[in-house]
Amino acid sequence: MTIRHDYRLVYALCVISGGAADVLENYGDCIETSCSAHLLQSRVTARRTHASAQDACADTLAFIAKARRTIEAVPYGGNNSPQGHPVSLITQDAQGYASARTVVPREISEDLSFFRLNTPEGTRKLGELAANPRTTLHVHDQRGRQGWLTIKGDSIMQHNSDGTVDILFTAQKLESMSYTEGLMADKEGFKPISLARQNGCWMLESQQG
After folding, report:
1. 3-state secondary structure of 53
2. 155-201 per-position pLDDT tens digit
């Protein structure tokens, strides 16, 4: 009986097996070479994709730094304290209307992807977040020609033993129009800049894959 090798099948097995030499040693040098070339190309593509994502992340660092300065410029207690900067916390009520109130975050991550707020048990904001975790944080930039910063995301609640609740906000989208920081998508200042979270970093929405 003559055994005929289907090299396309062997090639597929090579890809699935990760190119193990012991699997391919009896199937000819041409298959081993093809498999090695495929694996090499896959690795090169993966590295290029990773490098491209890293470059895209780096491209938005300046925008995040400007957005953070916008928050840090909001006065609290009569001055620009590094300890707290008020933001508007916006939720939705049972009728779908927006409820806004001013809060001071207890914690803000360096890249503005995470905020921790704190409130007593039983407050209205907790009831609204329990019904709809979609959350918006808003900052009014009062410097110079002024501007605004809006961060949209989702919140979960962590109940503490002291009778308070931490609101843990994870950002998904950031929009800003600031003449002072130059955060805008056009020269005239009619279009806000818009970033979204993807693969663990902020990316301009036009850069998302």
Report:
1. helix
2. 999 999 999 999 999 999 999 999 989 899 998 888 999 999 998 99
Cα dihedral 53, 170, 138, 93 sign: positive
Q: Does pTM top 0.90 for this prediction?
A: no
Nearest by Cα to 205 from 183, 182, 180, 174:
174
pLDDT in tens, 52-61: 555 557 789 9
Distance in angstroms (rounded) separating the CA atoms of residues 51 and 58: 10
Spatial contact of 194 and 185, defined as CB atoms under 8 Å apart: yes
Neighbours of 198 (CB within 10 A): 16
Q: In angstroms, rounded to a whole number, what is the distance separating the alpha carbons of residues 203 and 199?
A: 9
Q: How big is the CA angle at 26 (ends 25 and 27), to the nearest 5 degrees?
A: 95
CA distance 134 to 112: 17
